[in-house]
Write a structure and sequence with these properties.
Layout lengths: L2 E6 L7 H7 L5 H9 L1 E4 L7 H8 L10 H5 L7 H4 L2 E13 L4 E8 L4 H14 L6 E4 L5 E6 L28 H14 L3 H8 L7 E9 L27 H4 L8 E3 L3 H9 L21 E6 L1 H7 L5 H21 L5 E6 L2 E6 L19
Length: 370
C-alpha cells in the first residue's frame, strides 16, 4: 500500500491551558513521525482537514464546497428536496451554562446510536413539520438539517470550540434570526426529551443542542448500486469490496479506502462513486487491502463515549498505540510506504526512507502540530 492517512478529526489545540496539560504526554508513534518526517500547516484551506482530504482524494473541485453540501451526497436528499434548499450538518452537543457564558463541554461532541438518531429525527419532523426545516439521521453519524435558502453565517465546526465559550462563535440573532430562533427552539425541544432522560439514566451526557454548521446548497444524494454497496448500516465489510471490479468498471477514479463516521468523509467518498466504512477493530485488518491508499478518520469523542473515565491524555495515547504506532510498524515492514497524520490544521508525513535522518533531535510529539 502506498499511503495510510490518519486524521484526528476533533483535536484542536487552540485552548492554551488544555494544550499545556497534554504537551508532554508520551506518544511514541506521533513523536517518531514528528522527529523524522515532514510537518506543514494546512494554511489557508477553507475547511481544514476536509479541504485537504478533498484534494488528497483527487476531488479538487470540492475543496471549497461547504461541508454540509458534500455530506448531503450520502443522505437521502433527492433532486426535488435539493431544489432551492440549503443543508447544514447538525451535530449533537452538550453545552454547559456558566456564570457569565455558555461553554461547549470538553467532551461535548455527543455520540448517538443510529436508532436513537432516527427516533429523534422522526420526532423533530413531527414537532417542527410546519417550519420548513427537516432533520435526517445520517447513517454515518449526526444529522443533516435541510431548510429554505437563507443568509448563512460561517459557523465553525464545533470540534474547534471544545472546552471553550461559544460567545462570539454563533451568529447574533440580528445577523441570522432564522437560524438563531431555530437553534433556541431545538434547545427547548431537547430539554427533558425522553431520549435525554434515558441517556442521563445510563450516566451519559444529555444532548442540549444541535450545532448547525457547514451550511451550503443542498445537493442531490448520489445513489449508486455497485455490487449493492449502498447500505443504511455501518457494518464493516472486507475492504476489498470498496474497490471491487464493478466499481473499477465505471471508470471513476478510486480515491482509496475510507474508514470512519464523519458525515463529510462519507459524502466525499459517495461523490467519488464508492462508500466509506466504519472503523475496523484494528489497523491490521486493512493490511490485506489491495488498493493503493487508505484513510482513517478518528474521533476522540468516540473514545470518550466508550471509556467515560478517560481524559484527553488517555484518548491520545490510545490513538497513538492502536493506529499511529501500528501504521509505523507496517511502514517498518514495508507493508506501506508512507504514514500521514492530519490534526490541529497540520500535516505530518513519514516515508519509508525518512527514518534514516538520524541527525534530527527528538521533540515532544504535539509540538509538531502547533
Amino acid at each position: 500500500m502506498e499511503e495510510v492517512v490518519i486524521v484526528i478529526t476533533d483535536l484542536y489545540l487552540s485552548n492554551e491551558a488544555e494544550a499545556a496539560s497534554i504537551r508532554e504526554v508520551h506518544l511514541p508513534g506521533l513523536a517518531r513521525v514528528a522527529r523524522y518526517g515532514t510537518s506543514r500547516p494546512l494554511g489557508s484551506l477553507g475547511h481544514g482537514w476536509r479541504s485537504w482530504l478533498a484534494a488528497w482524494s483527487g476531488q479538487e473541485s470540492l475543496i471549497e464546497s461547504a461541508p454540509a453540501t458534500v455530506a448531503a451526497a450520502a443522505s437521502r436528499v433527492t433532486a426535488e428536496d435539493a431544489k432551492d434548499r440549503m443543508a447544514w450538518i447538525a451535530t449533537p452537543v452538550h453545552l454547559v451554562a456558566g456564570l457569565s457564558s455558555v461553554h461547549l463541554d470538553a467532551r461535548g461532541l455527543v455520540q448517538v446510536e443510529l436508532e436513537v438518531r432516527r427516533d429523534l429525527a422522526l420526532d423533530f419532523n413531527k414537532v417542527f413539520g410546519e417550519s420548513g426545516f427537516r432533520l435526517e439521521a445520517l447513517p454515518s453519524a449526526g444529522f443533516l438539517m435541510s431548510g429554505p435558502r437563507i443568509a448563512d453565517p460561517d459557523i465553525v465546526d464545533p470540534a474547534r470550540v471544545l472546552g471553550a465559550s461559544i460567545t462570539g462563535v454563533l451568529p447574533e440573532a440580528s445577523n441570522a434570526p432564522t437560524l438563531r430562533r431555530l437553534v433556541a427552539e431545538i434547545e427547548m425541544w431537547l430539554h427533558d426529551h425522553p431520549v435525554n432522560v434515558a441517556r442521563q439514566r445510563r450516566g451519559r451526557l444529555p444532548i442540549t443542542a444541535l450545532w448547525l454548521w457547514g451550511g451550503g446548497i443542498a445537493r442531490e444524494g448520489v445513489a449508486l448500486d455497485l455490487e449493492r454497496l449502498h447500505t443504511d448500516t455501518m457494518d464493516t465489510v472486507p475492504a476489498s469490496v470498496v474497490r471491487g471490479a464493478a466499481l473499477e468498471a465505471t471508470g471513476i477514479p478510486v480515491p482509496g479506502a475510507a474508514f470512519g463516521a464523519d458525515p463529510f468523509l462519507h459524502g466525499l467518498w459517495r461523490l467519488s462513486g464508492t462508500i466509506a466504512r466504519a472503523l475496523p477493530r484494528t489497523f491490521e485488518e486493512v493490511l490485506g487491502y489491495s488498493g493503493r491508499r487508505a484513510v482513517f478518520a478518528l474521533e476522540l469523542s468516540q473514545a470518550f463515549e466508550e471509556n467515560r473515565s478517560w481524559s484527553l491524555r488517555d484518548a491520545l495515547m490510545d490513538v497513538d498505540r492502536r493506529w499511529i504506532s501500528s501504521a509505523l510498524e507496517a511502514l517498518r515492514k514495508r507493508d506501506i510506504a508512507r504514514v500521514t497524520v492530519v490534526a490541529n490544521d497540520h500535516v505530518l508525513s513519514l516515508g519509508s526512507r525518512d527514518p534514516w535522518k538520524l541527525w534530527r533531535m527528538p521533540r515532544p510529539a504535539l509540538t509538531a502540530l502547533q
